[in-house]
């Protein structure tokens, strides 16, 4: 690592008893571990002061750039307890590469990929006792970068703060494999050509909130976005990619054209499907065709995927112009098979032919 990480364990870590109580049934993103990583960037020093130390609050000037122009990016990845008791990260190199791409899209200084990997690895190692013991549990790591220039001038960031925090998590959707319902947003869009749809930045998620609120008011779990030009092509959910499974056993997902986040779980599912001998297509799919295929029986399953929720069956879709159920409304064999194959690798229950798991020292 070209930027040495100083490791300073906190003086007063959470006691074993307190930690076990917090790990009993952690709500996603509500409980945080004892430590965090921070590093600074400036125009003259580049990246420096990389430290792993006790988690603490930040203090900024009210004129800090991120507070006014949203210059912020983030990632999400997990550390999993393996079948042999060790701990490993899932594809951190892929997150490091996407993090650097997001930084370049927002005119922020890219973090060296080796520095990213070493940071998440060190934090997961130091706080590995925070991984819950129950099924589907893991340690969720949230690397992020914000522009910290104290100026209201609209310009690319020179001063930045990189940080990694971690939280213990169980299943994202309570109830495990229950299928989710979707609301079709035909008024709001997530991203447009030339925008930041393929960058993992906070603004994309902020813009999706009102559509997710609309979905909740309609009694649906998640929102599904259509393209911004024709309002016809299915793109992704508020925070997950989407897949379709057909009666011939083939699977399809929308292509990466710049408006869809290149999900690491998405990429992994594509590879696993090919490993299983399935025909895989990355092609556009319209919302009208989705409804027609579901009603005719040509489409037998659909699922969403992402780091937080892993793989989640989609049971039904509703909107102002659409309403249909997919298969039996509960998911299906292909979805379950792909989810199981992914989880078996992540938890060390199966071989890792693609070298996705990075073991901690």
TrEMBL record:
Q: Which reaction does it catalyse?
A: L-isoleucine + 2-oxoglutarate = (S)-3-methyl-2-oxopentanoate + L-glutamate; L-valine + 2-oxoglutarate = 3-methyl-2-oxobutanoate + L-glutamate; L-leucine + 2-oxoglutarate = 4-methyl-2-oxopentanoate + L-glutamate
Top-level EC class as recorded in UniProt: transferase
Q: Tell whether Iron is among the UniProt keywords.
A: no
Might you name a Gene Ontology BP term for this protein? Answer: L-leucine biosynthetic process
Question: Which cofactors must be present for this protein to function?
Answer: pyridoxal 5'-phosphate
* PROSITE patterns, A to Z: AA_TRANSFER_CLASS_4
Residues modified to N6-(pyridoxal phosphate)lysine: 200
Q: Which Gene3D superfamilies match?
A: 3.30.470.10, D-amino Acid Aminotransferase, subunit A, domain 2 (3.20.10.10)
The pathway that the record names for this protein is: Amino-acid biosynthesis; L-leucine biosynthesis; L-leucine from 3-methyl-2-oxobutanoate: step 4/4; Amino-acid biosynthesis; L-isoleucine biosynthesis; L-isoleucine from 2-oxobutanoate: step 4/4; Amino-acid biosynthesis; L-valine biosynthesis; L-valine from pyruvate: step 4/4
Q: Sum up the protein's function in the record's words.
A: Acts on leucine, isoleucine and valine.
| Protein family membership | Belongs to the class-IV pyridoxal-phosphate-dependent aminotransferase family.
What is this protein's name?
A: Branched-chain-amino-acid aminotransferase
Q: Which source organism? A: Gallaecimonas xiamenensis 3-C-1
